[in-house]
Design a protein that fits this description.
The chain is α+β, with helices and mostly antiparallel strands. It has three domains: about 170 residues, FAD/NAD(P)-binding domain; about 160 residues, 2-Layer Sandwich (D-Amino Acid Oxidase, Chain A, domain 2), CATH 3.30.9; about 80 residues, no CATH class. About 35% of the residues lie in helices and about 25% in strands. A hairpin with a 7-residue loop joins β8 and β9. The longest helix has 24 residues. It is globular.
């Protein structure tokens, strides 16, 4: 059997591509070496946004495009995205004066066009403190307020995967590419060997087009594939300049507002995002190599201390509560030769015959990236790119928030491609944010998975032990960083 498209990578970008291809009636399979959304797609700032801070860098077209997509994606997943008012404190002697903030927020509203949310307003210091009493009052002269969308990044990615599957896409996790070579038939197609890491079984398939959507690993994946297809050719130069960003999760620090802040130490913008009854604080920006080494995915003590100190400066209560969790992801940013903090969030489609690589981009514009990739694939397939049609039809809704642990586990296996306990606790629910870090429900969920996946008692115990170890290590890292003073 020859497939039209094989997608490598199960983050939001690869899933968006598989969804759009399946909706065109193409035959498509997606392979992910770990779990869906297990990389940067579950470690974002949890925002569908245009990027108000990108206006300072003159990236107006990107902001306009992302704002349009913000509306479309929120309509597709109303249970997973909601509008939130963000407050931007103005401080005496601060980097951004009031007139500049007002101009930027006005432009943000204008670029959103008819799809804009509630427009911006400006508030004096007493009004800002009435809205958010937890703000430090010293030096506060006022605030700007604007609207953006907050979403559940991992579960939104899972919903996209479900939509792709519902339209005929094959979605396979814990599978990695072992080999690729030119196929004998049809002309120009590629033959791939894929290994299921759990079943330890291999299968061969043929694809007329292969899409490399492996995020921060895209440079390495492209290099390795091209070495197999055209041995002896020089390796392609890297196209990415990845960067690590971390987030701290606190008990709620605000009365429901998001806050856009400027770090006093380095002038970097970061957010306090209300999510699942908690406050998500981030993010950092640390350049990594391409591809990132395993150690470069881990949050560092320095990053934790940096975020903790900066958020406590503006929201003093943060200095007296312990963060509940810390997470890290590596962004697949395009290398534009600039400082990593100013790197573009735009994307590129790189064509190497039947191999397409999608590099760069941001979560909010995943549908735009999918359209660009599918247009390139359509040309390879000798189909009309102009006939590629996207849809804003609703994505499959998530399981109800109050469902019991057994039903959650069953739904995750039967409908959401889950294969481990961590898949469910971290990416198909918000139990990782519970006060007990998911440990209270872990045994019931593990039992549900064991019954449906045929685990042995030893495997079930191993899954529980691995989650307990993850929680222990995460809490130990936070304690070593001396976040709580």
């Amino acid at each position: 059997m020859t497939l039209d498209l094989v997608v490598l990578g199960g983050g939001i970008t690869g899933l968006g591509i598989a969804r759009l291809a399946a909706r065109q009636g193409w035959s498509v399979a997606l392979f992910e070496r770990d779990d869906l959304a297990s990389g940067a797609s579950s470690a974002s700032s949890h925002m569908l946004h245009g990027g108000v801070r990108y206006l300072e860098h003159g990236q107006f077209a990107l902001v306009r495009e992302a704002l349009s997509e913000r509306t479309a994606v929120a309509r597709m997943a109303p249970a997973l995205a909601r509008p939130v008012r963000f407050l931007v404190p103005l401080l005496r002697g601060g980097r951004v004066p009031g007139w500049k903030l007002r101009a930027g927020l006005t432009l943000y509203d204008v670029l959103a066009g008819r799809e804009r949310l509630s427009g911006h307003t400006m508030a004096r210091a007493p009004e800002a403190l009435a809205l958010e009493p937890g703000l430090a009052s010293d030096g506060l002269t006022g605030a700007g307020l604007y609207s953006d969308m907050v979403m559940d990044d991992a579960r939104l990615a899972i919903a996209v995967a479900r939509d792709a599957h519902a339209h005929g896409a094959t979605i396979r996790t814990r599978c990695e590419l072992q080999a690729v070579r030119p196929a004998s038939e049809p002309r120009g197609a590629l033959e791939l060997t894929v290994r299921d890491r759990e079943a330890r079984a291999e299968e061969r398939l043929t694809a007329r087009v292969v899409v490399n959507a492996t995020g921060a690993w895209s440079d390495r994946t492209r290099r390795d594939l091209l070495r197999s297809l055209w041995p002896g050719r020089p390796d392609p130069p890297p196209r990415l300049r990845p960067s690590r960003g971390i987030h701290l999760v606190y008990p709620a620090l605000t009365r429901g507002h998001g806050v856009l802040l400027t770090a006093a130490s380095d002038g970097r913008a970061f957010f306090v995002v209300p999510f699942a009854g908690r406050s998500l604080v981030g993010t950092t920006e640390v350049a990594t190599q391409s591809p990132p080494a395993d150690a470069e995915w881990a949050p560092t003590i320095e990053e934790i201390r940096y975020l903790a100190a900066e958020v406590a400066r503006v929201l003093p209560a943060a200095a007296h509560v312990a963060p509940l969790a810390v997470c890290a992801g590596v962004r697949p940013l395009l290398d534009a030769g600039a400082d990593v903090g100013r790197a573009s969030r735009e994307h590129r489609v790189i064509e190497d015959g039947a191999l397409l690589t999608i590099a760069g981009g941001k979560y909010t514009t995943f549908r735009v990236m999918a359209r660009d990739v599918i247009a390139a694939a359509a040309r390879q397939l000798e189909r009309d790119p102009a006939r590629v049609a996207d849809s804003v039809a609703p994505l499959p809704p998530p399981v109800a928030a109050d469902v019991d642990a057994n039903a959650l586990g069953a739904h995750a296996v039967e409908h959401e491609f889950a294969r481990t306990l961590a898949d469910v606790l971290r990416r198909r629910s918000t139990h990782w944010l519970d006060d007990h870090h998911g440990l209270a429900v872990a045994p019931a969920i593990a039992g549900a998975l064991a019954r449906r996946l045929g685990w042995s008692p030893e495997r079930e115990r191993d899954e529980l032990d691995q989650w307990r170890l993850h929680v222990r290590d995460e809490q130990a890292l936070l304690a070593r960083a001396l976040v709580v003073h």
